[in-house]
Amino acid sequence: MVLVALALTVVFWVIPKIDYLWLNAAELSLLKSHGWNSILPNTPLIYWSILGLWIVISIGLLKRVKYFRAIYVASLIATCIANVLWGYVVLSPLEAGIVNLLGMFDGAILALAFFTSVSNSFEINPNNAIHADGHSHGV
């Protein structure tokens, strides 16, 4: 589940860089309104760093490192706050669909990581997260 969410996140991050391949000029013009009236800057460094952070968090969740659950929750909360400060959000239908899917995956990952037997497999030491069968089982 974490891997699917990570793949969707990467696709979501890349789409704005390649959507000119299938969107018409009017649609691209509309998407340029994304971020209008923003309080926070969104430079390429910030943009790609956030993706890097999600990748690191996903790896921590896959390895079932205990503190990555808290980092995951904090990142979801920070994203909610940042969305208010990043101004208007304009998404293509494809991007909106991916955002909806990611929201469902986030909820499922949170539920599994905190409220099921999977929560007991999170360890403080990532080396302990390898199970008796020799595999690290992702959430």
Structure overview:
By secondary structure, this protein is mainly α. It has one domain (2-126). It has five helices and no strands. The chain has helices at residues 2-18, 25-31, 44-62, 66-85, 93-115. α1 (2-18) packs antiparallel against α5. The longest helix is centred in the C-terminal third of the chain and has 23 residues, at 93-115. It starts with a helix and ends in a 24-residue tail after the last helix. The relative contact order is 0.18.
Main beta sheet, described? none
Percentage of residues in helical conformation: 55-70%
| Total DSSP E strands | 0
Report the mean per-residue pLDDT as an integer: 88
Q: Globular, elongated, flat, extended or rod-shaped: what is the shape?
A: elongated
Radius of gyration: 17 Å
Write the element-wise H/E pattern from the N-terminal end onward: HHHHH
Category by helix and strand content: mainly alpha
How much strand content do the residues show? under 5%
Contiguous low-pLDDT stretches (5 residues minimum) are: none
Q: Calculate the terminal CA-CA distance, rounded to whole Å.
A: 6 Å
- Number of separate structural domains: 1
Number of helices: 5
